[in-house]
Amino acid sequence: MARFLLWRALQAVIAMLGVSIAVFLIVHLVPGDPIRLALGTRFDESLYQAMRARAGLDQPIVVQYFRWLGRALTGDLGVSFRSGEPVTLLLLARLGPTSLLAGAALTVALAIALPLGIISAVRSGSLIDRVATAVSQLWVSVPDFWSGIMYILLFALVLGWLPASGYVSPLDDPVRALRHLVLPALTVGLISGSVLTRFVRSAVLEALHQDYARTARAKGLSRWQTVRRHVLPNAWIPIVTAVGLQLGFLLGGVVIVEVIFEWPGLGRLAYDAVVRRDYSLLQGAVLAIALMFLVVNFLVDLLYSYLDPRVRHR
To answer: Which pLDDT value is given to residue 185?
Structure first.
């Protein structure tokens, strides 16, 4: 087990190193001078050169990368070119709202996908299966920006049940926080739930056609007893894979949804950094999103080894 964990951790470190190189190079190869853009009409040559030197942009790019990486390993991602605030603090401030939205959206997705996917697989070919498959395919094809705007029109502007946008911390006012959370969580959760429903259905359906499932039925177990005792334990690995990918996607910040609902998460922060050409902030945001995705994948690998011990020896 220790060897398995060490190998997975080493793979995650190598992947993170590759991500850091890609993020650094892509941001630096984008046309435009971030210092000149940050100064705007306040441009002054001496101030420009001083800011370049302070940001380390007057050094060769290899030196810049290793300096940036060294500082990043200590938690120092530099300062925002626009606001002058530490990037690490800006990221930490957005981590809570993004985690809250991702958790709520994943809860909605699982509440839909698990029962609907299992029922569709067990009742394969029935009316409920065909309706569930059609609805999930339809919902997957609906863009999140369109469904988000429709929810705002219906539930906020027409019915007046929920606020159209904004964020309230659950620590300040739990009820208002929940009201602000409902629409963005539904926007993301329904789409993720549709994707997961198809994964759950496929995984359960495949397990139902295995010999152990047929043997269980031949011994006299009912269909649902077979599913509970034999099918679901063997179908969890592909389901966990899909859930892990969806969680990584959600934690990465659903940019469009956060912009539509003015949700102050990591996706909105990355969007603002792109619009304002705030390269240091964009580097930090992308690196944080990649790190969260790798952490989720690492946790999924650990869950694999728990669900199926054979994974540790592959």
So the answer is: 93
Whether the per-residue pLDDT at 216 is higher than 70: the answer is yes
Angle between helices 87-122 and 232-251 (to 10 degrees): 150
Burial 218-256 (b: 16+ CB within 10 A, else e): eeebeeeebbeebbbebbbebbbbbbbbbbbbbbbbbbb
Distance CA 160, CA 135 (A): 27
Confidence of residue 38 (pLDDT cuts 50, 70, 90): low
Q: Is 86 helix (H, G, I), strand (E, B) or coil?
A: strand
Pull the structure tokens for residue 90: 């800006």
In the three-class reduction of DSSP (H, G, I as helix; E, B as strand; rest coil), residue 79 is classed as strand
pLDDT band at 54 (very low <50, low <70, confident <90, very high): confident
CB 117 within 8 A of CB 200: yes
Q: What is the dihedral of CA 168, 169, 170, 172, to 10 degrees?
A: -90
Nearest one of 179, 232, 198 to 112, comparing CA atoms: 198
Per the prediction, the chain carries an average pLDDT of 84
- The C-alpha angle 131, 135, 138, rounded to 5 degrees, equals 140
Backbone φ, ψ for residue 250 (5° rounding): -70, -40
- Measured in degrees and rounded to the nearest 5, phi and psi for residue 306 equal -75, -45
Name 86's bridge partners. Answer: 79
Please say whether the beta carbons of 300 and 236 come within 8 A.
Answer: no
pLDDT above 70 covers a percentage of the chain that reads 92
> Who's near 47: CB < 8 A, 6+ residues apart?
39
